[in-house]
Amino acid sequence: MAISSIYRLLSSSIRFKNPNFSFPFTTVSSAEKYWTHLQKNCSNPEKTLNRVGVKLDTSCVNEVLQRCALNQPLLGLRFFIWAGLQPNYRHSSYMYSKACKVFEINQNPRVVTDVIEAYRVDGCLVSIRTFKVVLNLCREAKLADEGLWVLRKMKEFNCRPDTTVYNVVIRLFCEMGDMDVAAGLRREMGLIDLYPDMITYVALIKGFCDAGRLEDACGLFKAMRGHGCLPNAVAYSALLDGVCRFGNVERALELLQEMEKEGGDSNPNVVTYTSIIQFFCENGQSMEALGILDQMVACGCAPNRVTISTLIKGLCTEGRVEEAYKLIDKVAAGGSVSNSDCYSSLVMSLLRIKKLEEAEKLFRRMLATAVRPDSLASSALIRGLCLEEGRVIDGFHLYDEIERLGCLSSIDSDIYSVLLAGLCQESHLMEAAKLAGMMVERGIKLKAPYMGDIVEHLKNSGEKELVSHITSMGR
Questions:
Q1: Cross-referenced Gene3D superfamilies, in alphabetical order (predicted)?
Q2: 3-state DSSP call for residue 94?
């Protein structure tokens, strides 16, 4: 392909887009008013913020936080906490995450203690809801020690912690793996006439299982009933997951039967059954796992994509590919998982067991019968073809076919770089130019690890102008 042709192909597809992001006028105005007020009332700003009298929303709060981030993080954090207490506004999980990022709370946990101390120095009226906003920040930033410190400080402000407050701190220590502190906090609740709820017990059971303390998890599970908290499917599933991880198949099946017998809130759900199916598959017992699937369906619980993918992977790993096809036929008849999900999982499993040819045939059969492959299957197969000696052009043709069928959204962006590198290495310059043009047109950047090899091959082939465009794609 002539250099000038390649240049025209690439040049025609280049579009530089500079979208302008702007907030609605009312939001900017609200943020500006809050910001101006904070500058004039740095001491005890909570007393007068209500006088601003403009609407709060996510964009407004976010802009105020950004303005405070560099030089006034404590003031910004106080505004954030105040905003979370207003009747017509509530922080989303996104906003808690944003606040942690803006004020770098993970790297600078002292800001949490500073804000509580600032309340004390200013003589602020602090409610339990204030502490809950602070604790939610600790939860988002995974600050267990600071969360416990906040819990202990509540007494100084005449605030009595409730079960929700304890649950946040208990869960933080469970996630950190410090089960002695977590269990101690549960016992402490009883001393102040608070009762652990289902959230408390599930966090502790899961925490004990994650820490390898299965006996403690089982003991706590039994103690729940005595404390008037009947285990539900979530509690059972948490314990069951731990039992399966430690390889106690008899105990796992006993728990499952117990759940099925009790019914109601304890009835096993799809997560419960999938945990046991995964356990059997990971231990080379996929046929036994199929029996659990039958049991699951008989109890009126439909499998989901994860359930079926786990079974397909297990069957293929054991060389039972025909059983995997039979499973898909059975599931397709039930309608709980789509043909697309089932066959995409099978393509992935065939690739894992090095059956590239069979995976490719199945994939092409999917395209021919309008069964849309998912992102993982599409990307994995193209990658597999590119890595197979002499088959990168087949990978490109498959990509081309997927594009014609309108399935390009199911290809990961890094696959473009893999494919382009392979085409350049095998001197398929016409196809490389076409792919590069598509990448430029769609704004897909060339991944850095592939840049050097691609540029070197093109230079050696005398394609200097194509090199220029390829290089600009990586910037």
A1: Tetratricopeptide repeat domain
A2: helix
Task: Indicate the SS3 state at residue 320.
Answer: coil
Q: How far is CA 388 from the centre of its chain?
A: 32
Q: Render each residue's pLDDT in the chain as its tens digit; 475 residues.
A: 444 444 444 344 434 344 444 444 444 478 999 999 899 888 889 888 988 988 899 999 999 999 999 889 999 999 999 999 999 899 999 999 999 999 999 999 999 999 999 999 999 989 999 999 999 999 999 999 999 999 999 999 999 999 999 999 999 999 999 999 999 999 999 999 999 999 999 999 999 999 999 999 999 999 998 888 999 999 999 999 899 888 778 888 888 998 988 888 888 999 999 999 999 999 999 999 999 999 999 999 999 999 999 999 999 999 999 999 999 999 988 888 999 999 999 999 999 999 999 999 999 999 999 898 988 899 999 999 998 888 999 999 998 888 887 765 657 778 888 998 899 888 888 888 888 888 878 778 888 888 888 788 777 777 777 777 667 665 5
Residue ending a domain, among 139, 160, 181, is 160
Query: Is 274 contained in some domain?
Result: no
Q: Rounded distance, CA 101 to CA 115, Å? A: 17
**Residue 130 domain-assigned?**
yes
At which of 160, 190, 205 does a domain end? 160
User: What's phi and psi for 34, nearest 5 deg?
Assistant: -65, -40
Residue at 467 is within a domain: yes
- Number of domains present in the structure of the chain: 2
| pTM of the entire predicted model | 0.75
* Residue 277 φ/ψ region, left for φ over 0, alpha for ψ in the -120 to 50 degree band, beta for the rest: alpha
Cα radius of gyration rounded to whole Å, the chain: 29
CA 311 from chain center: how many Å? 23
Position 219 in a domain: no
What is d(CA 382, CA 387) in angstroms, rounded to the nearest whole number?
Answer: 9
